[in-house]
Amino acid sequence: ILMVDEKGKNMKCLTFFLMLPETVKNRSKKSSKKGNSSSSSSSKLPPVCYEIITLKTKKKKKMAADIFPRKKPANTNTAAVQQYHQQNLNNNNTIPAPNWQGLYPTIRERNAVMFNNDLMADVHFVVGPPGATQRLPGHKYVLAVGSSVFHAMFYGELAEDKDEIRIPDVEPAAFLAMLKYIYCDEIDLAADTVLATLYAAKKYIVPHLARACVNFLETSLSAKNACVLLSQSCLFEEPDLTQRCWEVIDAQAELALKSEGFCDIDFQTLESILRRETLNAKEIVVFEAALNWAEVECQRQELTATIENKRKVLGKALYLIRIPTMALDDFANGAAQSGILTLNETNDIFLWYTAAKKPELQFVSKPRKGLVPQRCHRFQSCAYRSNQWRYRGRCDSIQFAVDKRVFIAGFGLYGSSCGSAEYSAKIELKRQGVILGQNLSKYFSDGSSNTFPVWFEYPVQIEPDTFYTASVILDGNELSYFGQEGMTEVQCGKVTVQFQCSSDSTNGTGVQGGQIPELIFYA
């Protein structure tokens, strides 16, 4: 019996030959009957047969990628490999070398060579709208393995044997990004093509690429693109992305409404934003944003941007703007003089402000709820002394990190310990030395140990698991209270906040004591 391992190689410690006694005896009798047989031939009889037994080892099978880790080829082949990689970036290039397969040790790398390559291509795609098309080669087997839509297209019951397929609704760059994932198992996304790539991944049912696109969008989400992404997330039926967009729009509503992307949304998304109860913005900002959208919509519909046409494209969405909740000055100097309201509507709203018997309005007259700010207090007690806490233009600073995305709206600061006093405060929020938000304002303290809020102009988005630096430079003649028994970690609702000392602090503030007792945020 010859015992071998799974690969067909002898296992030296277990390899042996077994000759059955009965077989030897029978063979010996037969050989003795033959007169021409020598004694030496009967003494060296080979086994009748060999039986090969496969031993199952406990070691896990290794794939080619495990055996041959990705590394640079030998110097002799480096130029050729680089040449083939460059060919993949261009269209309709074939590989001239007869033994190109030998340059790549794994099936993954050899498969990647076929990406955007005419070699052995059995189908071509004409991708893009008329006038901006690009012809891309494909290989049916590879595409069918990567997408159920391609499998049905090429091998399904209703498969059509076409050499060229036109795809006018997908951008060439997005289609190439999807092909690169299917061929190379690589995800290559860019901010200007990720939405188009998501569309392609959804259309051809490539779920892992679609998930990567959504993750990319969530990571790059900001007030500037939140409205556009909200519109797209509803189109692509991505509820998680939709929720993240609403979080940004609610907390940074004024920035989102003033962004260029707001004017690019569809009418349905416009209505949903105008209906939003938790929109954290002044109503005059909502009104102006709606008029800006209407002007761009007139251009999309090839209409002259007159007052009448703006009102026409807004339609019933105009009454979702809560004009009666504006400050009277905002209405009188803004909405009332915009021309978008009829004379009767303007008169009725003025009466709504001033008359005891208020007229009925088509506009929503109930103020939005907005967002309720949360406060993270990091000290367990506060105190004051005859020589502390003094301000001479020096910086009080602390670093913090959160475990969930939040929006810092401002800081809570201590006030005077010697009676009423006014302070000038310059607040600042930085990440790795880059200023994300700052504001210069004044606040009045009443001599109590309470904290007094100082706000940024707009809430600042804070990403999880990254330390940010909160700083304030106070200017005031009076001494103030200061915090004691500081905590390194504070649980505030569903958000955990960690604190550590900052090298920017030159006035004594640290984790254990000092100023900036509160972070005010939306979550």
From TrEMBL:
Pfam families: BACK, BTB, PHR. It is found in: Cytoplasm. Its main location: cytoplasm. One of its GO terms (cellular component) is cytosol. Residues 121-191 form the BTB domain. The keyword Coiled coil does not apply. Keywords: Cytoplasm. GO terms for biological process: cerebral cortex development; dendrite morphogenesis. InterPro entries: BACK, BTB/POZ_dom, PHR, PHR_sf, SKP1/BTB/POZ_sf. The keyword Cytoplasm applies. Residues 25-45 are annotated as: Disordered. Signal peptide: none annotated. Residues 34-44 have a biased composition (Low complexity). This is BTB/POZ domain-containing protein 3. It comes from Struthio camelus australis.
